[in-house]
Amino acid sequence: MTTLTADRHLTAAAPAVSVNTVGLMFISGFFATIAFDLWGQIISPGLGFANLSPHGLAQSLLASLGLPSNAFAGYFVHFYLVGLVGYPIGWMYVFAPIWQRVVGDTNWLLPAAIYGVGLWVFAIGGITAIAGLPFFLNFTGITWVALIGHVLYAIVMVGVLDLIERQKQA
Fold it and tell me: What pTM, to 2 d.p., does this model score?
């Protein structure tokens, strides 16, 4: 299982699929999505920066694929499919195991931040293009707010996984 040791280093391989793993994904993804939305929809606009609308991006993607694209569908895709499932799966089963094999045991903070940048490239560089929106949203203010949001998401997600792992070991 990709775990974080007591000294907060990434170790081992991807976790086995189990009810426990799904629970870890949901819990870490929940707190990370809350942090992302808090930053993008409250803090950033409160500071005079752009307001993120990730459910709007999800709606655009769904519409471009010919799927139902109402507000509920956008929120469902953003919060549940991406925030609670997709991004945690990417960390647990793709990025963290590759990082560990290539770089070795390291503190979790750097790979989490790099993973967040990767999520940003995927969402704002890739999904926007598929959804028919401008590449990286023309590098407007929302692009940079989204970068911070995705890095924050990844750090909170991995930090929560670390916290749960430390509590299990205690």
Answer: 0.90
Give the tokens for residue 112.
């989490």
Tokens 């560990």 sit at which residue?
100
* Vertex 106 angle, CA 20 and 100, to 5°: 60
The pair phi, psi for residue 6, each rounded to 5°, is: -60, -30
Spell out the per-residue pLDDT of the chain, length 170, in tens.
Answer: 455 544 455 655 678 888 999 999 999 999 999 999 999 999 999 999 999 989 999 999 999 999 999 999 999 999 999 999 999 999 999 999 999 999 988 899 999 999 999 999 999 999 999 999 999 999 999 999 999 999 999 999 999 999 998 888 87
